[in-house]
Amino acid sequence: MLAPKRLLTALALTLIGSATAQAADEVVVYSSRIDELIKPVFDAYTAKTGVKIKFITDKEAPLMQRIKAEGENATADLLLTVDAGNLWQAEQMGILQPFTSKTIDSNIPAQYRSSSHAWTGLSLRARTIAYSTERVKPGELTTYEALADKNWEGRLCLRTAKKVYNQSLTATMIEVHGAEKTEKILKGWVNNLSTDVFSDDVAVLEAINAGQCDVGIVNTYYYGRLHKQKPDLPVKLFWPNQADRGVHVNLSGIGLTKHAPHPEAAKALVEWMTTPEAQKIFADVNQEFPANPAVKPSEEVAAWGQFVADTLPVEVAGKRQAEAIRMMDRAGWN
């Protein structure tokens, strides 16, 4: 009777091992980026390795809450989202686990990675000034801060303060200037608004085009998408703060979930996503800048011109996020 039991045990172990091996052939990603922006990257990885990538898309807050609720019964191996503020928030929620990788460290500059190794940037976007080429001369523009000056009164458009992109910009300004000066700048911006704040960056660009305002602050890839649709758009990008701290740069990034079912396969995917092969695909599809400095941006993105970027670690955006939100509210930026 012992032999059949041993046989059954061996068979069970074989089946378990087989199931584990099959499971490792799939990585599950929860992504706040829409399908069309990430599928080409994942398809390339599957073609290269045979590992299938299953991704579920939603807004970042529901995805992070879902990961937290799943706990040890996790479905997701990775969280892919935009803005260091969101990634920092995920880290604070305890839903990411740190891991060190020489590959990632050599491919992605330290300022675009979590200091605790909980996440890494994959692509970069500048949040910069857009202006009307019909009503503004580039020589009139200098810095983000200068948009609070009287000469821009009634000429500025902004996106809502509820969006993390503006919260992160404000957070970095607090880090550089301190609270008192930054709040004064924000109040100047609000005073200079030509109209109510907009729900998204494309609306800001369209408002500049329509003559509702002359300048605004937007993420570069929104400009890229709109310019692709309207090549004759009389709106251009301006790189501010080139004589001091540089242009505010943020990112899209990825982190390993705390209870990832397939951690090793997930780590391998993240490492590959920082390589030149993946970075080229990711940046081109998204009209963003590669986070890996060895990779050149697309011709279209490169045509916007070179600029000096802020060297602050992007995780500052998360660390000062709560302070930034309170300040924006006090300044009347809604």
Automatic annotation (TrEMBL):
GO CC annotation terms, alphabetical: outer membrane-bounded periplasmic space
Membership in a protein family: Belongs to the bacterial solute-binding protein 1 family.
Protein's recorded name: ABC Fe3+ transport system, periplasmic component
DNA damage as UniProt keyword: no
One Gene Ontology MF term: metal ion binding
Species of the source: Pseudomonas fluorescens R124
PANTHER family xref list: IRON-UTILIZATION PERIPLASMIC PROTEIN, THIAMINE-BINDING PERIPLASMIC PROTEIN-RELATED
Segment forming the signal sequence: 1-23
Keyword Signal: yes
Origin superkingdom: Bacteria
Keywords from the UniProt entry: Iron, Metal-binding, Signal
InterPro entries tied to this protein: Ferric-bd, SBP
Pfam families hit by this protein: SBP_bac_8
Binding site for Fe cation: 221-222
